[in-house]
Amino acid sequence: MRSQSMRLTLQRRLVVEMTFATRDHFTAESLLAQCRRRNGKVSRATVYRTLAFLVKAGLLRQVGLGQQSPQYDPNFADAPRHGHFVCVDCQKVVEFHDPCLDVRESIVTKEHGFSPKRVSLQIEASCDAFREKGVCPRRAG
Ligand SMILES: [Zn+2]
Ligand SMILES: [Zn+2]
């Protein structure tokens, strides 16, 4: 029993480590694959539970970035106000932060009688390649 819970602790620690080893957005399944490359015994349940814990603790954010499965974003701890551009063709994601938008957001929010808790701005757009060539070289398939 003791060694079983020890193994679980090590697995959780690996999941947390891999979560913040990247600045890329990722899915639970891609994180699972990455963890298993380091430790083949990491269970899917541990990955999902640890991600849910990190989200609840406010260290990780779940975002919809044009993909079918939800993406996790490890960058909100460092940059709590960043937004995303998502290419409608290749799903390329670029992060941005504009302090002027922060100011406008808080004014508009207060005007409507709210106090801001969490902001996420996502702009779906065409990337340069899509605009110029009508197709994105990065597009999968
Ligand atoms: Zn992000
Ligand atoms: Zn594109």
Tally of distinct domains: 2
Report the end-to-end length measured between terminal Cα atoms: 47 Å
Look at the structure and name the CATH superfamily of the largest domain.
Winged helix-like DNA-binding domain superfamily/Winged helix DNA-binding domain
The CATH topology of the largest domain, please?
Arc Repressor Mutant, subunit A
Q: What class do helices, strands and sheet pairing give?
A: alpha+beta
Instruction: Provide mean pLDDT, rounded.
Output: 89
Bound molecules: zinc ion
Rg, rounded, reads: 18 Å
DSSP summary: helix tally: 5
Strand element count:
5
Question: Strand sequence of the main sheet, in spatial order?
Answer: 4-3-5
Structure explained in plain terms:
The protein has 141 residues and is of the alpha+beta class. It has two domains: 78 residues, Arc Repressor Mutant, subunit A (Orthogonal Bundle), CATH 1.10.10; 62 residues, Ferric-uptake regulator, C-terminal dimerisarion domain (Dna Ligase, domain 1, 2-Layer Sandwich). 43% of the residues lie in helices and 13% in strands. It has five helices and five strands. The strands form two sheets. It has a three-stranded mixed beta sheet, with no helix packed on it. A two-stranded antiparallel ribbon has the order 1-2. The mean pLDDT is 89. The chain binds zinc ion (2 copies). The site of one zinc ion has 6 residues, from loops. One zinc ion binds next to α5.
